[in-house]
Amino acid sequence: MINGGFFVFNSDFFDYLQDDDDCILERTPLENLSIKGELKVYKHEGFWQCMDTYRDMQLLNSQWSSPDKFWKVWI
User: Fold this and answer.
1) Is the full-model pTM beyond 0.70?
2) For the chain, domain boundaries
């Protein structure tokens, strides 16, 4: 499993943030949520591909241009 980088928070999450440049989201705020049992995950079972680099973009564009768009579920 990986972290796809998507988060959904309610407004109470701001209580976990510190007002300084040393506050790192993935450290203290998320660790504290985890300790309190407030951190949850969604396990996505479908297609996923990151698009962090030019190569990733080329790969996804190539897949989209192909006739077999196996992840496309809408008409």
Assistant:
1) no
2) 11-65
